[in-house]
Design brief:
alpha/beta, 8 helices, six-stranded mixed sheet, Rossmann fold, four-stranded antiparallel sheet
C-alpha cells in the first residue's frame, strides 16, 4: 500500500474573516507545487505542516503519522525559507551542523556526513567558508545541505529561490529534485511561477477562495485548467 507523504484532512485555520480549509494528499516521494495568488494561503499551509501555526480543526499527517499536536522540533519536517538563515559568524560546516545538533558538539562521523552533504550540493572542500565568502547560490546550497543532514522525510520550500536569477533558480530546483530522487523524500514547494512547477513538480495544487480549488498531475492541470480561477491565474 502506498504511503502518503503529506496529508491534510479538514484542516482549518484563520484570522478574523480570513479563513482557509485544506484537504490534500501528496504521495510519498513526490514533488508537489502549491500555486495561487498572494494571500491564497500557500505559506500558511506550510506553516501549519511545520507546526509554526496550529489548526483550529482537522488533522495533519506525515508519512502516515499524525503530527497535528507535535511541536515543530518533533515533526519529521524541514523547511527551507527564502532567507537561508545562515549565521554569519559560523562556517559552512557549523551552519550545517546546527541541523544535527544545535550545540554543535559534532562527532567525527557527523562531520564526515556534513562534508558528504557539501559534496552532494557541489561545495566540496568549503567546510571552513563563512557565508560572506560564498555567493548567493552557494549560500542556498549550504542551506540545502543542512536540510539533507537532518534526514527528515518531508521538505517544505517556501519560495527559497525567489530572489535568485532565472538560471540560478532553475539550477537550485534541479538540485533539490535530484536530491529528492536520491533520498526518496517528499517535497512541497510554494511558488508564484507556473514554470517552476512545470520544471520539477509531479503534482500541483491551486489554492483559491479559502482552499485547494484543484489538484492533480502538473502538466494536465496547467495545460487543461478546469477551474475558471486557475485559467484566469494562468492567463489562459
Amino acid at each position: 500500500m502506498d504511503v502518503t507523504g503529506l496529508e491534510l484532512s479538514g484542516v482549518r485555520f484563520g484570522y478574523g474573516d480570513w479563513q482557509v480549509t485544506y484537504d490534500l494528499a501528496v504521495p510519498s516521494g513526490s514533488f508537489a507545487a502549491l500555486l495561487g495568488a498572494s494571500g491564497a494561503g500557500k505559506s500558511t499551509l506550510l506553516s501549519l505542516v511545520a507546526g509554526f501555526e496550529r489548526p483550529t480543526a482537522g488533522a495533519i499527517g506525515v508519512q502516515g503519522k499524525d503530527v497535528t499536536n507535535l511541536a515543530p522540533a518533533e515533526r519529521p519536517v524541514t523547511t527551507l525559507f527564502q532567507e537561508h538563515n545562515l549565521f554569519p559568524h559560523l562556517t559552512a560546516l557549523q551552519n550545517i551542523g546546527l541541523g544535527i545538533d544545535p550545540s554543535l558538539r559534532l562527532t567525527s562521523t557527523q562531520k564526515s556526513d556534513i562534508s558528504a552533504a557539501l559534496e552532494r550540493v557541489g561545495l566540496a572542500g568549503m567546510e571552513a567558508r563563512l557565508p560572506r565568502e560564498l555567493s548567493g547560490g552557494e549560500r542556498q546550497r549550504v542551506a540545502i545541505a543542512r536540510s539533507l543532514v537532518r534526514q527528515r522525510p518531508l521538505l517544505l520550500l517556501d519560495e527559497p529561490f525567489a530572489a535568485l536569477g532565472p538560471a540560478l533558480r532553475r539550477d537550485m530546483l534541479d538540485l533539490v529534485n535530484a536530491l529528492r530522487r536520491d533520498t526518496g523524500m517528499t517535497v512541497v514547494m510554494v511558488s508564484h511561477d507556473p514554470a517552476d512547477a512545470r520544471r520539477v513538480a509531479d503534482c500541483t495544487a491551486f489554492l483559491h477562495d479559502g482552499g485547494i480549488a484543484d489538484f492533480g498531475p502538473t502538466a494536465s492541470l496547467l495545460d487543461n485548467p478546469d477551474v475558471p480561477a486557475l485559467a484566469e491565474y494562468l492567463g489562459v
